[in-house]
Automatic annotation (TrEMBL), chains A, B:
Keywords: DNA-binding, Transcription, Transcription regulation. GO terms for molecular function: DNA-binding transcription factor activity; transcription cis-regulatory region binding. This is LacI family transcriptional regulator. The keyword Transcription regulation applies. Residues 9-63 form the HTH lacI-type domain. The keyword DNA-binding applies.
Length: 337, 337
């Protein structure tokens, strides 16, 4: 490799040149935290003039940090539409880390496999400074292990464990209530729920919101209108075609974009233009609804923003914040097209 | 942090225990390359029994490698549908690296900004072992710099530079020819092209394919049917509504999923059920077409697969392969729904 290395310009020599402290120079070159914008500009100009180049090796050795975040995500084998994997999360994690020295290693996991061994490898081998976990179980073994090891981590979604840990979550009960309520206000009465597997925390939360909205409108939930499985467009297509064809449902509350598209395709194939009388609502991480045509209620929260928040909570912990203070719950916006 | 470190079990002590070479142990624990599966199992079992944990710090110091890949990508601020950013690429890059020790740092860039300074920082500060570049210009300054610095990199798309460099690309001329040809075989004659900005290599390649298909069917291209701009659903919606309403176009060749959805929304708003007489084709990185309804020709190549191939070519170069040998062109599949 013929790329030239600069001579040994250090934080110390820049500080001496400018007559300021090494801490000031370090902060100005890193993220400008607690330094005036003018000083940041002055330090950066001096550093450039002197030929300073950053090198992470020194910081690694000095701090014992790896500057790596491990993200255990459900990476989908095919790029799908919307909420079918953690690709949006990954985007947001990278976006938050772009202004830092951190790199990401993504560990693909499925909801079924809990990957405890891989988590243990990271902690024991010090392969990263912190961990992001998705597909959280009610009694997640990985969370128990990481709490015991006192290793920085954040989960996307909550557990039912009593010990406080850092998490970011969307208020799923509210989101499902919001969509169901919107469909009821449109006059629909037989609202089918097409949702994920009941083993996942967020599915139980959604079910509560759905039933609460029905009960507020004086309706009791009909078990024949509830479908729980690994979400897929194909399955939703079949369910919706059956229900709409036999006039059993007049609206669909869908767990994500894929399920909404599948349900709409099924209804359209079965009753054609009659689809205009059927209501649709979904939880959404994209603005897909604007392009589909027809009235759709979307409970929207960006998955990219979710990834950003996860990385932010994790960085705060790595920086020393108490893990119980690193929790965040956000509500979805109802967007009707 | 209370996570316990193992005692100093090394590759050497495992090799001594088993009576095999250190190289065998290292390969078995890394990727199993050139080692029998049985030996991999035996080595891993011994390592686990002896309490061996991997630690990258040693490898970093020994090899001088950072085990970081920098990916300069157009990360979209909102999670969009399909080909609107490099999120699918990022997914594929992570998937390829999952079996290695590499982490990724994503540097968000827009097509307009060429980020030469950031590339120079990476090389001079040795912040990574290799670089992935997207949004490639015909005479890309970053490519020129990296060739001169002899630093491992791979581009998504080709340049017009004479020096050989490593790239991965989709055969865009073929993809556009394929879509146009399919529309012509369906009987369409006035095919509008809604594509990206002409400053990008792939847009010129697509234009050639579009014009070649027309000419093979005895038609000359009509400049009034060609639209070049930063692709967006909104713009496509307006263009398609105008053209369909005034009966000027009977089909649309769309650069990606967003543009297709926008164009369909525009046509539907303007001529309603008349949309069934209008042809649609697009370049696609997702299976969106199956859920939209209506006949759509998709020239499909997975963006995740593209990311996988980019990371693979880059690893080969970091491993010492000649950059001129690290080039790959793939053809899209025509999928008609």
């Amino acid at each position: 490799m013929s790329a030239k290395r600069s001579p040994a310009v250090t934080l110390k020599s820049i500080a001496a040149e400018m007559g300021v402290s090494v801490t000031t120079v370090a902060r100005a070159l890193k993220d400008g935290d607690r330094i005036s914008p003018e000083m940041v500009d002055r330090v950066r100009a001096t550093a450039t003039r002197m030929g300073y180049v950053r090198n992470l090796e020194g910081a690694r050795l000095r701090t014992g940090k790896t500057f790596v975040i491990m993200a255990f995500l459900g990476l989908s084998p095919e790029e799908e539409v919307g909420d079918s994997g953690s690709v949006g999360l990954l985007n947001g994690i990278h976006a938050r880390l772009a202004s830092t020295d951190y790199a990401v290693r993504a560990v693909p996991v499925s909801a079924a496999e809990q990957s405890l061994d891989r988590v243990r490898d990271v902690v024991q081998g010090r392969l990263a400074d912190g961990i992001v976990l998705d597909h959280i179980g009610l009694q997640d073994e990985r969370v128990k292990y990481l709490l015991e090891a006192d290793f920085p981590f954040v989960t996307f979604g909550r557990t039912e464990l009593l010990s406080a840990h850092s998490w970011f979550d969307i208020d799923n009960e509210h989101a499902a209530w919001q969509g169901t309520d919107a469909l009821l206000r449109d006059g629909h009465r037989r609202i089918a729920l097409i949702d994920g597997d009941m083993g996942q925390t967020f599915v139980r939360q959604r079910l509560r919101g759905y039933e609460r909205a029905l009960s507020e409108h004086g309706l009791s939930p009909d078990p024949a209108l509830r479908f729980h499985a690994e979400p897929s467009a194909e399955a939703a297509r079949g369910i919706a075609a059956d229900l709409a064809g036999e006039n059993r449902a007049d609206a669909f509350l869908c767990v994500n974009e894929m399920v909404l598209l599948g349900a709409r395709a099924g209804v359209r194939a079965r009753i054609g233009a009659g689809i205009d009388g059927i209501g649709f609502a979904m939880r959404a991480g994209t603005n897909l609804a604007s392009y589909v045509g027809g009235r759709i209620h979307a409970s929207h929260f960006s998955r990219r923003q979710s990834g950003w928040e996860l990385a932010d909570l994790l960085l705060r912990q790595i920086g020393g914040a108490d893990r119980a203070s690193c929790q965040k719950l956000v509500r979805t916006d109802l967007v009707t097209t």
